[in-house]
Amino acid sequence: MVRKLPKADVVVIGVGWAGGIIASELTKKGLNVVGLERGKERKTEDYFMVHDELRYALRYDLMQDLSKETITFRSKERIRALPMRQYGSFLIGDGLGGAGVHWNGQTFRFLPYDFEIRSKTIERYGKNKIPAGMTLHDWGITYDELEPYYDKFEKTCGISGEENPLGGKRSDKYPTPPMKKSPSIKMFEEATKNMKLHPYMMPSANLSQSYTNPDGIARAACQYCAYCERFGCEYGAKADPVVTVIPVAKKTGKFEIRTHSNVRRILHKGGKATGVLYTDTTTGEEIEQPADIVVLTSYVFNNIRLLLMSNIGKPYNPASGTGVIGKNYAYQVIKGNAIGYFNDKQFNTYAGAGALGMVIDDYNGDNFDHKDVNFIHGGMVSLSQTGLRPIQNNPVPQGTAAWGKEFKETSLKYANRYLSVGAQGSSMPFKHHYLDLDPTYKDAFGDPLIRITFDFEEQDKNLAVFLANKCAGILKEMGADHIDSLKELGPYDITTYQSTHNTGGVIMGADPGTSAVNNYLQMWDMDNLFVVGASAFSHNSGYNPTGTVGAFAYRAAEGILKYRDKGGQVV
After folding, report:
1. pLDDT, greater one: 121 or 402
2. Would 571 be classed as within a structural domain?
3. Are 291 and 34 in contact (CB under 8 A)?
4. Averaged over 535-560, what is the pLDDT?
5. Cβ partners under 8 Å of residue 512, min gap 6
6. 543 occurs within a structural domain
7. In terms of DSSP H, where are the helices of 395-502?
8. Rounded CA gap, 55 and 76, in Å?
9. Which of 179, 264, 353, 404 has the smallest number of Cβ neighbours within 10 A?
10. DSSP 346-385
11. Tally of CB atoms within 10 A around 76
């Protein structure tokens, strides 16, 4: 029998960056908020003196248990999807703080071009530049409209950085100065300046100095220990929801967090969300939490899955191109990189931080002329020093024997004599890339898994090789003696890690017929339901998505407060 609890003003599903920001902003305005997190409690003390590569980086201690819930994948509709039984291409976080605990901290703003990508592309190149099947879509908001929310998120996190010379205009500088430049970063800077490019230090949620944010949260500076990605920060120097926004919400006395609470349905009646149904995974009890406003702030896959299982919104149909839930799934093109080997130079690549690096955006967005290339958009190119942990890193030049004396000698020679310059390419949406419920496979509760249908297109293959050649050119200018770079991008491989930058499925826009949420991330079909996260992106940019997720979370919080006061669709 389902136990029904007293009604809350707001129930938040998933307490990561988006959920934490929503809770913080709403409780400060006097609303009572219940946060439901299916994972366990997390706090900074959990990571004291725990630099354990095996436990966190290789055995995925902070990630979702795939034996209980996973995704299924197929590259084309005619192929049967199969479950992802071990982690590969991306990592799905679990627990309080979500992926905001184990991220690297690279915090970018999308380019102004991203938000009006269809209009701007047609304006400059004509309609024929957009290939058949690419469902390119303006976002229903401009960079200038979103800029104040970017600024707010950066000040909450204490982002350390310097102005991007090719980025959108800023209303204020970063709250803390950029991080230190290592010798390899200085080499990248000199080389790219020699090539008449525009380098700048990567915007970092790893604090360059001690900082107190506008909410009064004080945090210490980064120690450059190199245990960021896949790890919690023992110093609290890496901004994450557990050390920034969640404490602010809890301090109001109006935020109740319930961990081990797996939301399985959003309840609704007469076109309104009435609450949620969740299972207490410690007892197996089913519980109903009524609420005036429901905010879905879990990871991309779960946002879509919950809407589909709850029969909210029209599911996307790739055959007809109709429907919106599951539409415009996009990923990231990470394969455009190059490795340079140096005979007479050595580097300490084991020190570092998750967002320590230098970037150029000369090949990102529409910052260069695409007239003579067979793709749109682009990607950032960077040299980052995130810390090469010893178990996972042992590259040798292509053509080296894979075992034996030659392999051992070459491994030792280049252990501290190589650098990687990498590109992070954008991902454009296509009609046949989408998410839906798998008809065969189910989770531990008997609910259907989410199914991905996706593969790299010619757009991605051309972009990856273009960016890899740019990376190789920079390494040549840096003086590398031997350079290996991508020559051809094959099919998408879900077994090899690339990035956890999944986007789309509940996309935003100005037209309810082609989008699921408005630019406050309010559902067109259910005005007291807000869906916040990278699921709102109608394509993925050549950057990490978290800065844009954070900005939209602050805008969504503003929209929720407007809805609370006036009701209806927020404008």
Report:
1. 121
2. no
3. yes
4. 98
5. 524, 525
6. yes
7. 404-414, 458-478
8. 35
9. 404
10. ----SSB-TT-EEEE-TTSTTSS--TTSSSS--EEEEEE-
11. 10
Asked if residue 517 has pLDDT above 90, the reply is yes
- List, for residues 219-256, the tens digit of each pLDDT value: 999 999 999 999 999 989 999 999 999 999 999 999 99
Rounded Cα gap, residues 80 and 541, in angstroms: 29
Q: Which two tokens stand for residue 120?
A: 């701007």
Q: How many CA atoms lie within 13 A of 78 on its CB side?
A: 0
Residue 502 φ/ψ region, left for φ over 0, alpha for ψ in the -120 to 50 degree band, beta for the rest = beta
Tokens read off for 194 = 């020699």
pLDDT value at residue 334: 86
Q: Residue 16: its pLDDT value, please?
A: 97
Tally of domains within the chain: 1
Q: How far apart are CA 281 and CA 292, in angstroms?
A: 25
Tokens encoding 200: 């700048």
Q: What domain range is 40 assigned to? A: 3-566
Chain position carrying tokens 């300046």: 193
User: Which residue do the tokens 């394969």 mark?
Assistant: 335
Name the helix (H) or strand (E) containing 156: helix 143-157
pLDDT number for residue 416: 92
pLDDT at 336 over 70: no
Confirm if 431 and 54 have CB atoms less than 8 A apart. Answer: no
What is the distance in angstroms between the CA of the first residue and the CA of the last residue of the chain? Answer: 41
Which of 268, 377, 501, 539 is the catalytic position? 501
**In degrees, to the nearest 5, what angle opens at C-alpha 384 toward C-alphas 103 and 407?**
105
**pTM value surpassing 0.90:** yes
Domain at 224, CATH number: 3.50.50.60
State residue 271's pLDDT score.
96
AA letter at 496: T
Tokens of 216: 């009064």
**What are the CA-CA distances from residue 516 to residues 134, 327, 508, 535 (Å)?**
18, 9, 6, 10
501 is catalytic: yes
